[in-house]
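Hello,

Our lab assistant flagged a job as stuck in the queue for most of the afternoon. It eventually completed. Since we weren't sure the result was trustworthy after the delay, we are filing this so someone can double-check. Below is the sequence as submitted and the structure that was eventually returned. Let us know if re-running is recommended.
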Amino acid sequence: MTVQPPENSPSPVPPGGLRASHDEREAVVARLRDAAAEGRIDLDELDERLERALSSKTHGEPAVLTADLPGPVPSQDRPPLLLRGGVQGVSRGPGRWEVPGHVIAHGGLGGVKLDFTRVECRLAEVVVEAYGEMAGVTVVIPDTWAADTGGIDPGIGGLKDRTTPDRLPGTPLVRLTGSGGVAGVVVRHPNRRERRKPHD
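-- returned structure --
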């Protein structure tokens, strides 16, 4: 005997009909920009696809926009980057360096500075696990990136978030976790001296 579903029960939604999230739309935007940089699509087609991606409502819509493109370069499988300030301190950047999905920074006695301002990063999100310890950790991100500091314990030294929420679609979100320790953790955009430096 066939059992009929109740009249008011919702109809099953096909996979492509599920609602798309902000992060999923931004991932498609990043892939389209990469494809344009690789010469796979021209700028006019990029503009058209970006407009459709940003206005998409369901999974099926952005999937069509990247169906004829190869998959993104796998980056999350890289091991975490571990930086220890030690006695002398350590820094990574500015300049071009390969960004993994997870960075662990221990301020130690010398401090750690992590500068993302001139990197090429295809990840939608980078987790920075920062421990200020005795000398602190400073994270510098481009003006177009944004930071989420909700996962960090301020500790004694505190957390100073000097970034703006004006994230450009398709750029990474830096998600901070860890603890401020004694000296604290700072996340900010480049200062005047750092902005001038590439032009010197």
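-- support follow-up --
The delay was a queue issue, not a problem with the job. The result is valid. Residues 17-65 form one domain. Residues 22-37 form the longest helix (16 residues).
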